[in-house]
Amino acid sequence: MSHSEDALRESLFGHTPVVADSAFVSRLSYLVGEVAVGERASLWPFTCLRGDGGSGGVIVGDETNVQEFSMLHGADIGNNVTVGHSVVVDYATVEDHSLVGMNSCVLRDATVESNCIVAAGAVVLQGQTVPKGHLAYGAPAQTKPLTDDQRDEIERVHEHYVELSREYKETGRFE
User: How far apart are CA 12 and CA 80, in angstroms?
Assistant: First the structure.
């Protein structure tokens, strides 16, 4: 695990963010406190990861991408997850192989189980569970099973961001 001086990373309450060497973290990201970022994960500009609460930090799994203007606070994000632009995940869990769409919110104690999509603009309510393999849409979120095309989209977007973050990291200019 590395600790680049370029990105804004702050220790708090005895915890220092830990980031895998293979991860891409934009120097315009802010990480504070109890934060762990996995292998080949990516944090794009203007993301905020706050591990300052008493009930756990922020975990970003392997090959997970967190896109611009998203905020994770006390969030547990699994492996191979896409967190779209301007998403809020507040003391909630998003399990592996899921996609959380732009401008959506996943609220306290909610769980998005594996292989799910949270549609753009959706609000997953406090304590709500999105069942494995479902689409959550609307505010408040309703659910229905994913289509094959939606399942394919999760993987397509995931693969795109793993490759894109590798390309950004190789330039050495953005971290």
Answer: 28
Alpha-carbon torsion 153, 23, 69, 143, what sign? positive
In the three-class reduction of DSSP (H, G, I as helix; E, B as strand; rest coil), residue 149 is classed as helix
Beta carbons of 50 and 72 less than 8 angstroms apart: yes
Virtual CA dihedral for 136, 52, 8, 72, nearest 10 degrees? 0
Ordered per-residue pLDDT tens for the chain, 175 residues:
444 445 688 888 888 999 999 999 999 999 999 999 999 999 999 999 999 876 679 999 999 999 999 999 999 999 999 999 999 999 999 999 999 999 999 999 999 999 999 999 999 999 999 999 999 999 999 999 999 999 999 999 999 999 999 999 999 888 8
Six token digits for residue 169:
């990291």
